[in-house]
C-alpha cells in the first residue's frame, strides 16, 4: 500500500508540473482577464457580465500577443512581446516551485535555488510556446548578407 501511495504521489506531482508548463503562456492573459473582470464587477457589470468581459479580455490579450509575434518583422518587438508574456509566467513558476519545494526541502537556500531554476524553466517555456508561431528568417533578422559562391565552371570560363 505504501508503494502505491508513493507511485501515485509521484504521478500527481508530475501531472501538476506538466500542467504548470502547459499553462505557462496563459499567465499574462489570466492576469489581464482577472483584473478586467474585477474592474467590471466593481463598476456594476454583475457576476455574469464581469465573467464574460474577463474571459473576452484574456482571450483577446492572448490572441493579440500571438498575432503580433507571428507577423512582426522587428526582432526587438518580438522580444518585447515575448518578454511581456514570459515574465509573469516566470514569477508564477517561481512561486509554484517555492511552494512545491517546501514539501520535501528543509533548507531555505535550496528552496530558493529550486524556485529560481523553476522560474527560469517555466519562463523559458512560456517564451518558447509564444514564439513558436513566429517565422524566422535568420539572414534577414540579424542583418547577415548571404554570400553565394560563384560556380567553378563559370569562374574559369570568364578569365
Overall structural class, as computed from helix and strand content, comes to mainly alpha
Number of helices: 7
- Can you summarize the main beta sheet? none
* Helix content estimate: over 70%
Write down the oligomeric state. single chain
- What is the H-and-E element order? HHHHHHH
Q: N-to-C terminal Cα separation, in Å?
A: 85 Å
Can you tell me the number of structural domains?
1
Average pLDDT figure = 83
Number of strands: 0
Sheet-strand content, in percent, reads under 5%
Low-confidence residue ranges: none
C-alpha Rg, in Å? 23 Å
**What best-fitting shape do the alpha-carbon axes yield?**
globular
Notes on the protein architecture:
It is built from seven helices and no strands. It is an all-alpha fold. The chain has one domain (21-136). Helix 4 packs antiparallel against helix 5 (108-131).
Task: List the SSEs and their pairings.
Blueprint: H1 2-22, H2 27-42, H3 46-71, H4 75-104, H5 108-131, H6 138-142, H7 152-158
At a glance:
The chain has 159 residues and is mainly alpha-helical. It has helices at residues 2-22, 27-42, 46-71, 75-104, 108-131, 138-142, 152-158. Helices cover 81% and strands 0% of the residues.
Question: What are the defining features of this structure?
Answer:
159 residues; mainly alpha
Amino acid at each position: 500500500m505504501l508503494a502505491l501511495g508513493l507511485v501515485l504521489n509521484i504521478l500527481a506531482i508530475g501531472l501538476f508540473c506538466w500542467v504548470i508548463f502547459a499553462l505557462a503562456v496563459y499567465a499574462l492573459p489570466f492576469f489581464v482577464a482577472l483584473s478586467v473582470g474585477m474592474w467590471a464587477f466593481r463598476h456594476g457589470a454583475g457576476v455574469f457580465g464581469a465573467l464574460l468581459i474577463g474571459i473576452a479580455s484574456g482571450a483577446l490579450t492572448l490572441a493579440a500577443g500571438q498575432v503580433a509575434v507571428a507577423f512582426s518583422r522587428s526582432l526587438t518587438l518580438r522580444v518585447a512581446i515575448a518578454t511581456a508574456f514570459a515574465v509573469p509566467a516566470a514569477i508564477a513558476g517561481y512561486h509554484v516551485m517555492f511552494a512545491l519545494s517546501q514539501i520535501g526541502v528543509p533548507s531555505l537556500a535550496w528552496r530558493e535555488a529550486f524556485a529560481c531554476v523553476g522560474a527560469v524553466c517555466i519562463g523559458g517555456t512560456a517564451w518558447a510556446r509564444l514564439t513558436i508561431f513566429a517565422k524566422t528568417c535568420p539572414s534577414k533578422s540579424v542583418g547577415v548578407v548571404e554570400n553565394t559562391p560563384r560556380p567553378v565552371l563559370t569562374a574559369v570560363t570568364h578569365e
